[in-house]
């Protein structure tokens, strides 16, 4: 699409030879987001549908610190473009899954998209506000009740959390932690659990089930490594002991003495 030429103004024509990313205009002109958040969202939306990437990749591409990335992510999450879910995988471990959308999903009530302000001259453009179409306004209003329900569910979940310390020393916060703690206590010796809890507390960390399970795995690997090292040392000592009892050949010893004496005479002569 070519805009109408204006006399006395510089004209810019876009010519592209490479594949391009399709990004909705309302994302690029969303003045409710910072420039950094818009740039990151445009880059992520430009990937194919279902594309997986890593946060470290984004931070390395745009040279972002942890704080800068978290601030931009909070903006996107507040306006419904970013969603994080915590679920259990096949092994029962809690993992995070993150999703990015090209349209707002579960918009927080604090995220406002004001209407577009028509300037006095030139083409319409956003001035300190986000251009909002009628359809976008309807989606925003329809998403508000879902956002309130989502926040209510999150508040109820937080209200149900309570710190409890089990006799084994493992600390639980919710029902899923209790299930994980019971599994750990059933699969491991109580003394090993106490050692793992003590190591975590010494490091000034909370001994929640996930950390205790990881520490138990690390302890098992250290014990296996130490056992292999002890076995290797014992085998080496046995080989040395067996070699010390082997009878020596007198002729071989005499030949070795002769070679050693010849080498010494050559060294003295050369000096």
Question: How would you sum up this structure, described in words?
Answer:
The chain is mostly helical. It folds into two domains: 135 residues, Arc Repressor Mutant, subunit A; 79 residues, no CATH class. 54% of the residues lie in helices and 7% in strands. It contains nine helices and four strands. A two-stranded antiparallel ribbon has the order 1-2. The protein has a two-stranded antiparallel ribbon with strand order 3-4. β3 and β4 form a beta hairpin. α2 crosses α4 and α6 runs parallel beside α8. The longest helix is centred in the C-terminal third of the chain and has 36 residues. It is elongated and about 105 Å long. It starts with 24 loop residues before the first helix and ends with a helix.
Shape: elongated
Distance between the termini: 93 Å
Main beta sheet: 2 strands, antiparallel
Mean pLDDT: 76
Percent in helix: 40-55%
List the helices and strands and how they pair.
Layout: H1 25-28, H2 35-45, H3 55-62, H4 66-78, E1 82-88, E2 94-100, H5 134-159, E3 164-165, E4 171-172, H6 175-187, H7 190-202, H8 209-244, H9 250-270
């Amino acid at each position: 699409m070519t805009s109408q030429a204006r006399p006395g103004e510089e004209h810019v024509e876009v010519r592209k030879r490479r594949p391009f990313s399709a990004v909705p205009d309302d994302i690029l002109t969303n003045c409710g987001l910072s420039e950094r958040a818009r740039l990151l969202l445009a880059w992520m939306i430009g990937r194919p549908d279902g594309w997986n990437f890593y946060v470290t990749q984004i931070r390395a591409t745009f040279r972002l610190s942890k704080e800068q990335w978290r601030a931009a992510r909070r903006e996107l999450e507040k306006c419904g473009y970013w969603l994080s879910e915590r679920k259990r995988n096949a092994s029962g471990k809690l993992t995070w899954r993150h999703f990015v959308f090209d349209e707002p999903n579960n918009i927080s009530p604090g995220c406002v998209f004001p209407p577009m302000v028509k300037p006095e001259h030139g083409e319409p453009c956003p001035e300190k506000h986000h251009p909002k179409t009628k359809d976008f306004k309807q989606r925003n209003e329809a998403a508000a009740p879902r956002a309130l329900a989502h926040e209510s569910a999150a508040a109820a979940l937080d209200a149900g959390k309570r710190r409890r310390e089990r006799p084994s020393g493992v600390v639980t916060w919710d029902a899923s932690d209790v299930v994980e703690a019971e599994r750990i206590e059933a699969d491991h010796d109580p003394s090993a659990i106490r050692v793992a809890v003590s190591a975590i507390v010494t490091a000034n960390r909370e001994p929640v089930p996930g950390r205790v399970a990881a520490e138990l795995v690390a302890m098992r690997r250290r014990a296996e490594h130490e056992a292999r090292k002890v076995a290797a040392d014992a085998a080496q000592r046995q080989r040395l002991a067996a070699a010390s009892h082997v009878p020596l050949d007198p002729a071989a010893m005499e030949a070795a003495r002769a070679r050693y004496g010849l080498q010494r005479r050559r060294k003295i002569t050369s000096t």
